Each structure stands twice: as C-alpha cells, then as structure tokens.
Target: DUF1310 domain-containing protein
Amino acid sequence: MKKRWIIALAITVITIFSLGVKFYMDEEKLNKEMKKVVYSDEAKQVFKKRLTNLDPNAFTEKGIIHSYKIEEGSVEHNPMGGIEVELIINNDSELNVSYTLSKNNGELSGGASVVSEKLSKLLGRWEE
Model:
C-alpha cells in the first residue's frame, strides 16, 4: 500500500513539474515572437507614422521628436489582444509613448497611445 502512495506521489510531482516546464517554454516562445514583431521593419513604419501624427515635424530639425527607442522591458502581451510597447523619445525616459500593436486584416497597426505628461507639454497638447 505504501509503495502505491509513493508511486502516485512521484507521478504527480513529475506531472506538475512537466506542466510547469511546458508553460514556461510557451511563455518564452510568446515573448520571442512579440519581440520579433516589435523590432520588425513593419513595426518601425507604424511607430514613425504614429509619432509623425503626434508631431508633424518629427524626425526633422523643426520637430520635438528626433528619435525613439523601444523600452525592452515594456514589451508584453495585452490581454485584450495585441502587444503593449513603450517608446522612449530622444533618449529621455520622461518623454515616452505607449502603444498597443495589433494585426488587422494581416496588417500591423498601432493604437491606444498614452503620451507622457512631459512630452504632451512639449508638443503643446497639455493645458495647465
């Protein structure tokens, strides 16, 4: 009787461990796929288009927005679908924009942006 309990316990532990490893591997795969999308040329085009919508002179001498980089730690799956990502503007962590990237009709698009207070003020979109 004692042997059966030990065997059952061993099988249970192995099963739980195996499921844990599988969930971890699936999560890693999802993270790699999301980063691949976020760093793609298609995403770069979406980011530039969205940033130009915020600042019509973006990436020019007249503009407020001169450059951006992806905040790597911000890339995560949105429970409603898509990928959440934060862009740091002009290498200033207080100047940032968050987007939700998603595929619509096979095309990547960005929406639901959140603009930091400091960037909003610089762009003249913040009233005091």
